[in-house]
Amino acid sequence: MAQPVCVVTGVGPGTGTALARRFAAGGFRVALLARNQERIAALERELPGSKAYACDVSEPAQIDAAAAAIERDLGAPEVLVHNAVGGGFGSFLDIDPEMLNRNFQVNTMGLLYLARRWAPGMVSAGKGSIIVTGNTSALRGRAGFAGFAPTKAAQRILAEAMARDLGPKGVHVAYIVIDAVIDVPWTRERFKDKPDHFFIKPAAIAEEAWHLAHQDRSAWSFNVEVRPYAETW
Length: 233
Fold this sequence. Notes:
Strand order of the largest sheet: 3-2-1-4-5-6-9
Shape: globular
CATH topology: Rossmann fold
Number of domains: 1
CATH class: Alpha Beta
Strand content: 15-25%
């Protein structure tokens, strides 16, 4: 049988790379999507059978072009992980309103464009998974997160609407709320006084995404929260 295909968006040095490695280790051919071609080209060389595609998920024309290339090179995806994220900090008075719009295009509209492109094929196949990596901003609007939290809340609600639509058709949609600081070099520098258990490991997030993509359909999860054992919540 041909190897199954997984598409991962937002393949950066942290969660995106960990997701790609986990699905590749599990026997998938992985389509690596990011705006930075050089970054994903290096990972493509590391993961046999993977393929890198430069794509800004806020642009439907770029998604259509990347999707056509992925289907030509690898085949139709069985798993889609929307990990691309637009972020930024500031109060509602301080931010440039364009920040909110830009983040909405990446976080929410990107999910819509990707799902509209690939969900019909999954429905036809009678199987498939769409997994979205989110965070605590999807559940609450804190001061200083006005340009970001509304877009993640909208993303989660869109994913829930998709899950209710697609679940009965055999396609699993799940949302991972990451309630933690992800362990990558820039966060280690910013929180240099924090102990190891303050951070969540990208590989652990990827393991949860793998689990969601392979849940028995008699026990599908939608909203999943992950956090370090010592996190206050």
